[in-house]
Design goal:
Length: about 300
Amino acid sequence: MAVTKELLQMDLYELLGVEEKAADKEVKKAYRQKALSCHPDKNPDNPRAAELFHQLSQALEVLTDAAARAAYDKVRKAKKQAAERTQKLDEKRKKVKLDLEARERQARAQESEEEEESRSTRTLEQEIERLREEGSRQLEEQQRLIREQIRQEHDHRLRGAGKAENPEGQGTPKLKLKWKCKKEDESKSGYSKDVLLQLLQKYGEVLHLVLSSKKPGTAVVEFATVKAAELAVQNEVGLVDNPLKISWLEGQPQGAVGRSHSGLSKGSVLSERDYESLVMMRMRQAAERQQLIAQMQQEDQEGPPT
């Protein structure tokens, strides 16, 4: 039996159109049908008819011989398994390739996003810098107008209500504050601007408070009303371990009394209702002073922030 190598590369069962487990009878029947349809005598104009007829004859010889068929089935099975392995390997390679391409696309997209974010950040920084340079004058002008408007409203209020308190028209009252403070003491001996404001705002509206940078332990406060300044002069003592010394700078009314440590002075012009308010104020002042002292002691124990 001479079977060509080309024939062994073909699927003989598929060539005859039978199942792999087909019996010899089914193989022969299929051969007769195929051979009859492609016989060279019936297909004189088809040059491949003779070749196909020859291949069918060889397939019949292999599949009707038990030993040849077993050997062919073994080779066919091995080739089929090899083809499946190749297909799986190709699928894995294809998947790896697709994953790699997807990661590359993702990396490029991420790089593009990062570049865009970086460009946007640089643009924002440039715009902020431009606004800082070009708009600072506008901002300063607007702030100046706001301060001027506040000043005008304040002056108008004083003209309407402050004449009775300060008939001499000396302007808003200003007080000088002094306390013990070493030059190198950055804590200003407990009298920061916030602490001073908390102590003084109990008496009325504080317009300005300036701590001297040249003379430690010195500050100037400007009140909106003379009455508030008088109450501060007469009643505020500051921290227990470092008292405040308060004196008039501007706007002191005639007949104004100094600080009284034993209650209201004989010449005080305060009414009975003002006296009750003052008592309550002193009680709140004492509680706030104790709270400030406790807070400062706690901060000293904790030490400076790391």
